[in-house]
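For the sake of clarity, the format in which proteins appear in this thesis is described at this point. Each number in the token line that follows is a code from a learned vocabulary of backbone shapes. One such record is shown here in full, so that the layout can be seen directly:
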Amino acid sequence: MRKLLLLLVFQGVFFSCKPYQSKIIRNNQMTYHIYRERQKTFFSQEGAIKYIDKGYGDVIVLLHGVPTSGWLYRKMIDELSKSYRVIVPDMLGFGSSDSPKGYNIYSEEKHAERLIALMDELKIKNWTHVTHDAGGLWTWELLKKQPNRIEKLVVLNTIIYQEGFNPPIRFKKGFFAKTAMWAYRNNITANTMLKGLFNSGLKKNTLNKADIEGYKKPLKEGKTHGMYYFFTQTCNALPNYKETLLSVDVPVLVVWGKMDSFLFWELQEEKVINDLNIYDKNVHLIDARHFIQEEKPQLINELIFDFLSAENKNKN
């Protein structure tokens, strides 16, 4: 691990001398500056949480994971908001939200409590919940605390069971992990980390400068405390939510990038389908890797629309 950390630091020094190799920014593309201007603020007990609130009607929550933010869903929000009210939070420690010092404030339980508090503040009692990556753990904790809040669940390459969990980074608490976070914050290894992350997490990394800005800027602003908890605690001792998962009694849609090298569907497929009681018609393995919101946003939206339409018909 020491050799790996030193390698990342030295590589970061080298790569940080070069601009990120990006494509030309497309006309009218969403920029991170514009995205942030559209965010609203909820003041939790631990700090400010930024979120998008767009559209009207039944509510859909889009929940990110680590080390991303609501920015991950930027290609999906506008289309979904034509038919639904879409809430997209940056969880504490990520994106535009505050990143206060502390360790246990970034636990799965605390993240869930803050998400519940946000929805209470918005006076939203029930919603369709879309989750990705570590957002799954915050979701399972939310379901454990208040199982009746989520009416329908959409799982996108989410952490569920240890069998499918293969995090790209694991650290022990202490000097080396803190040094790695320091290197991210000071732009020494941020380029290297993000380039490696998306090269591994996308079939083809076509992200341009504007795309990367939304992932890089929070790191440059020092948003690494939530990452530190995840890489030093969660990745080494994944919480067991089997009992909670067995108690879930809502319709579930799975959309999974079948070439994901971080989260393997086939290693946990039978267990997840049985425990969450998922119908075969609601499991979709798509031609993508981990960050499917970047690769297949339109397809994901179509599958969500079809799923919700079918469930509404069944309900009526």
